[in-house]
Amino acid sequence: MNQPQRQGPHHAFSGPGPGAPMHHVPGVRAANPKGAWTRLWRYLGDHRLKLSITLAATAASTALSLIAPYLIGRAVDVAVRAASPNSLLRLCALLGAAYLANVLATFVQLWLAADMSQESVRAMRRDLFAKLLVLPIRFFDSRAHGDLMSRSTNDLANVSNGLNQTLAQFLSSAMAIIGCVAIMFWQSPRMAFVTLTVVPATALCARALGRWTRRHFRALQRDLGRVNGFVEERVSGQEIVQLFHQEARVIGEFEALNESLRKTGVRAQSVAGSMGPTMNTLRNLSYMAIALAGGMFASHHLITVGVIASFLSYANQFSQPVNQIANQYNLLQAAFAGVERVSEVLDEPEERDEAGAEALAQPKGRVEFRKVSFSYPNGERVLHEVSLTALPGQMIAIVGHTGSGKTTLVNLLTRFYDPDEGQILIDGADIRRFTRRSLRRQIGMVLQDAQLFTGTVRDNIRFGRPEATDAEVEQAAKRAGVDDVIRRLPQGYDTRLEPNGSNLSHGERQLIAIARTILADPAILVLDEATSSVDTRTEMRVQEALGRLMEGRTSFVIAHRLSTVRKADRIYVMDAGRIAEEGTHEELLRRQGRYFELCRLQWGEANPGA
Q1: 340 CB contacts (<8 Å, ≥6 apart)?
Q2: Could you tell me whether strands 496-497 and 429-430 are parallel, antiparallel, or unpaired per DSSP bridges?
Q3: Structural domain harbouring 450
Q4: Among 85, 489, 563, 606, which one is most buried in terms of CB atoms within 10 A?
């Protein structure tokens, strides 16, 4: 959708004449505008001085715009009476001064309003991003990433547009309406009543059309979300789409969604477009009533011709703010809806440590699971009374079929989730006694897919310990066996990586991730399928790096490739969330149980695992 064009406040100095088209920009209705306004006011309230100056500038601009029609009427009366030219010149000079002062006041008003709007949105965007970084993993498991990105971009853009285009206009429009009504009744109560006859009809039409547009634009936002989600998902899975030659089918599905969005957009924009012509028709009826009534009153010497001229100008100034508020209403609703969607994230409970939690410092590395059971939020039980022990410095292997609960164990160890029952202990103390920050500081992870960030190679390795020196970064790379690879890059350690390190091979990314973990120097190590996505030659190099990484550390190795766990001090075989077997590689082979079957599947019938 195209973003609405920015509009400044309309006064007598530059407003459109009778019949000029109004640009109605609709939005999405907020379910709880009061709550959204309360949240928004917290951000705007940090700029009270600027807000006060904006109000003063708005009041000055409005007052000057209201003086202009009065001066025009006086000038007309002077001209009709053929009075002294000096009087006419004085009135024209005053009118010119009012124009110039209004321009200055309007500039101050718009500049400060834009500054406050952008500062408030910047603070909201900062708070949203900071919040996303501290929310528990379960929050992201239950939310589409495309939706979260939409809240960070589209919804905040709606807030920004709404504030930029309505904050100054709404203040100016409200003051202009009040001022117009007061001056019109001061000049001529009869003409004021005639001018205001159109107000009830305007209010009823605006309300009816507003309801109609909201319904259509809710459908538009829904269809837009579907298109965005479809595009995000298919672009992320582009390799799969091309691998299975499904481009034509995916394009067809997109066309169906896109066509639905087009039809919904046409309906919404058509309905929204009727607001301007309707308001203009009512305004023109007001001009007609003023001309007829004014002519009758002037023929009976109840008012002067100058008063009629003033009222025509006041009618224009009065109808414009009414129409603007009708337009601004939907923009404000869109902004409030954006604030509500952002607030849903900001109000999510963060990870909180237990009262009195202490820092985990220099653990020896004994890890114990005691009858741990766990269910994900959907209610499915994935672990059933799991018990295992890892002594300091031991390598513990966890194997089993996909979905047996292997990765869930390490998610519990890092407290991405907490068990429903049982305990997890480090050096004999329940991990819930420690702060999450200090606990995770002592646990290093190397995953199947190495996550690198846009930036230099040096920055990506230093991510494990930001205060590390360049020498320490390079030493970690040497221990990971990737120093020679990095030095062959165009700028060595200062080579900038493309998103997720796509200008490196998978094995090179994995080695850099290992270097990052080496630099972090954790006491406990988790390797989750760390070599499953690399070729055999690269696997040997990664295995050597992992061997150096695991020296002196308690390590948990999750693997499908059983060749990587032969040397484990203890192997636990998971099956349907339970530990089916445990022992060393040789012990488990002699039992010819689940582990033996896994080895036979990988290495063949003859002497599996030999």
Answers
A1: 30, 31, 32, 35, 36
A2: unpaired
A3: 392-411+437-603
A4: 489
Residue 369 has a CB neighbour count (10 Å cut-off) of 22
In a domain, 431, yes or no: no
DSSP letter string, 470-522:
HHHHHHHHHHTT-HHHHHTSTTGGGPEEPGGGTTS-HHHHHHHHHHHHHHH--
Final residue before a domain boundary, out of 313, 346, 379: 346
- Structure confidence by residue, pLDDT tens digits, 193-216: 777 776 666 667 766 776 676 677
Q: Are 39 and 110 in the same domain? A: yes
CB-count burial class (<10 Å; 0-12, 13-18, 19+) for 121: buried
Q: How far apart are CA 531 and CA 480, in angstroms?
A: 14
Residue 402 and residue 282 share a domain? no
In the chain, the number of structural domains is 2
Report pLDDT for 106.
81
DSSP 376-400: -TT--EEEEEEEEEE-TT-EEEEEE
- Give domain status of residue 211, yes or no: yes
Same domain, 472 and 560: yes
- Tokens 């990737």 -> residue: 482
Give the Cβ contact number of residue 226 at 10 Å: 14
Together in a domain, 593 and 520? yes
Name the region of 415 (left: φ>0; alpha: ψ -120 to 50; beta: rest).
Answer: left
At residue 199, the pLDDT reads: 67
Q: Which of these, 100, 104, 95, lies nearest to 313 by C-alpha position?
A: 95
Out of 290, 316, 346, pick the residue that ends a domain: 346
- Do 402 and 329 reside in the same domain of the chain? no
13 φ, ψ (degrees, to nearest 5)? -70, -35
Q: Is residue 120 part of a domain?
A: yes
**CB crowding 567-584: b at 16 or more within 10 Å, else e:** ebebbbbbeebebebbbe
Residue 68: closest CA among 332, 333, 386, 316: 316
- Which residues touch 204 (CB under 8 Å, ≥6 apart)? none
Dump pLDDT digits (tens) for 411-440.
Answer: 899 888 888 899 999 998 999 999 888 888
Residues in the chain with pLDDT values less than 50? 1-29, 606
**Integer CA distances (angstroms), 549 to 496, 517, 521, in order:** 25, 8, 9
The first and second tokens of residue 9, run together, are 């406040």
